[in-house]
## 1
Amino acid sequence: MKALHIHVGERARRHIALRGLSPSDVRVIPAAAGGPKGLMLTHLDQHLFGRWLPKGGHTVHLVGASIGAWRMATAAMPDPVQALRDLAHGYIHQHIEPESGRKMPSAARITAGFTQTLQEFFGGQVQDILTHPRWRVHVLTSRGRQILRHNGPARTAAGLAGLALSNALSRKAVGLFLERHVFSSPGEALPVPLRDLPTQQLPLTTENFLPAMLASCSIPFMLEGVPHIPGATRPGAHWDGGLVDYHVHWPYAAMDEGLVLYPHFQRQVVPGWLDKGLKWRHRATPWLDNMVLLCPNPDWVRTLPGGKLPDRTDFTGLTPQQRMKTWVEAVARSEQLADEWQSWLQRGCPADELLPL
């Protein structure tokens, strides 16, 4: 059974049918939020950033929210292949003991543990990430507005309830509660126009790299919001970037040139975290016309341990030892995705194997 499906927008399909696909065609790589599901892209990421994309010789924009931000920052480290291996190993084997009398650790304890993990993982390599000669890293956060400006379980619950209700009526209503922040490493500007929601684009620096990364991964109730990120010009706690941009469904087709290559864990590019249950927002749009999306075949996913991708329910549904064993096996199996991707490239990028978004 094939593990990899390649889904494309119409413009991308025409391009590949005429000219194939080369590293120089790729201008943007998005990386979705989604927690442990991102582990399934480990081997694809290693091939893309360690072997294939460096042949292009041009600037590529790496855009990520939550685990996607962590993956993209890791891809810009000096040795991306080893760094991506280390990321998968560390993520799989993470375990934070809950406080006495609790089944799950508090948000404060998880925040402290994750802060330490980020510091240890990126260490002294932040400057290397920011000055990568070709990769521009863009870290997404969601700055709270109104009731979500400050931390606190009651305020967060009330704010998210209002956000969920408003978002169900209109995606644009997200901007009443949250403002997209894009923290970008120095160099060429992000080529995607962002006018759909309130957005601030700010420099990613050595001073705010770790706070921005922490905020991008700060899932409400699991972690605490980051009260302030150096360089942010407006007050308000910063939360998980996936709240606004769960799968980074942006107007890529408005770019002047180039394609979007999207290693993803599913076919659907869901706009926001609260859109997960709103199936009518899971359809492809003209914004994705120049996208090439790589994802696991759903039938192949059902052959994985547990019949699914790794996800956050495994933290409560499995013992730590069971979870780690299951995730190690799933990641090992995911090497088939990278092998089939390389085979497709080596066979000349046959367009008859492409599927629609």
Note: Residues 4-356 form one domain.
## 2
Amino acid sequence: MTVDARLQKMLIETVAQQVIAHADELTRLDQAIGDGDHGINMRRGFEAVLSELPVLSEKSLPEALKAIGTKLVMTVGGASGPLYGTLFLGLGRALPVEPSGTAIAEALASAIDAVKARGKSDVGQKTMLDVLAPVLEEVRSDPHPLPERLRAVAVAAAEATIPMKAIRGRASFLGERSIGHMDPGARSTALMVEAIADVMEGKT
């Protein structure tokens, strides 16, 4: 798959704008079971990414992803900065310049492993991993997944965190009271996948 400067710019811009547009929603989710700053932090990070959009769109895909990861680590507060930064850095380190469907799956798997290590967490603990893992399975099952399938998997996976009890992160301090609320990190991850699906469908 060839990702030219125009497509790369569109992907980065669409993902960033999607997160920024839902910042208030993410903050409300985090107010229920976290520190209440997830939306604010993610907005700040992706506004910083947008400020570098012309430069990022001219880099190779791996280098652009690594630059985004570094920017998120530097600008997003709390645990989200290191975790999302690790995700993008991991993708950038593992992806070739012109990735195949198989290479994308392998890179996503590698990035997920890095996030697990960074957060000392795993699937089933009410985190962003509970969206990333099903998305990875979808990509593995079909190297060229349909956008609507990717979107549906991500949205359903975020919804599936509602009945979970949080094991990791700030929400874990609430114990049973974390049940009944969607994980903010799962929601923001699903938003990114939705944005990518929109670009794949040509909606942007």
Note: DSSP finds ten helices and no strands in the chain.
## 3
Amino acid sequence: MLAVSLRINLKLNMVRFGSIFLFLIMNFHSSILFAQCCAGGSGSPIAGGASQGVLLERQIDLNTNFQFVNTDKFYKEDALDTANTFDSFQSMYEYFRIAYGVTKNFTMSVESGYYLSKKEVGLDENPTTTYESSGWADLILFPKYDIINWTREKTRTEVTIGLGFKIPLGSYNDSTGNVEPFSGQTYYITKPTAVQLSSGANDIIFYTFLFHGFTEQNFRIFANAYYIKKNYNPNGEKLGNFGSLAVFAGKTFFKNFGVTLQARYEWTDRMKINESVLLYGKPSNYFPEATGYKKVFITPQLSYSKGKFTVYAAMDFPVYQFLNTSEFYTQVGSKHQSTFGISYKFFVKNNEVKKLSGTGKYYCPMHPEQTSEGPAKCPICFMDLEKAK
């Protein structure tokens, strides 16, 4: 009887061990399959409304925008593929920026973002392979300096350079627990890179902005370029360096309505792994071969300005995508990405306006140093000048 009992217990333990082993293997493979870097979105921590030069001296800009991403399109290089590794990727991201014009040529901004939701839905909406995160992402310190700022009678030209520093606030190795049905034990699996709140690394941001406006036609053309040098996080992982180049054309209608069209090319390199660090650390879920891309977007943007407030909305339309993949792994591409934002600008001190009191001159409420003896338009923002009281 004792021998029979031992054999039964041994078989039960083997079944239990086999179930646990199978459970771990399934979760291990799923963790690799769902490791998509920058899934469905951009490799840049900057979100919306970031194409700008410097502010006026003592001017403050409060800006927030909401960015929504949703995609279920998978690619192998530049072709759509039906081999989905999960159902869809979704992101709801709120971005905040406060900027201050330290001098007429130098602006300092502090920027950050909060993920209301960052979600990867498993195949057939399987809850055990669905991952979601929420919380603060990164803190960005972003000084900008005007190297050229020329205002002529009918035109205005500006060239700005910037150098930002990204400090990670959110988690980069967050995990989720799954309960093994036989033993009741909880096993923790690191969430895919796509739903981590941050890369976990300190990055450097290089920025250039060029602007040329035609005052009488209420027309402007401008461009910006970003290059983000990514660094390694404590796990020995380095997300691919990011770069973008965008050109814009915009025109103001009916004094307050602005229409802008953007064409943007962006790319992200493959992520890298420091093998020597991973020997001693706990790696995140990833598959480096299926990371990195090249994309082209067309983005129309509408804006409305009233006094110190500006509201705007933009929608990204991908017109070309090339995503790095391997023989066995696809990568999720871009589909829908929309941005809605509001900006409020004001001055800490408004001495320029006080000087105009009683003179009968006209001034711009947004740029009080722009004055005229009669009705005119501001050469900077193209608003109608208001008469000083």
Note: The first helix runs from residue 2 to 33.
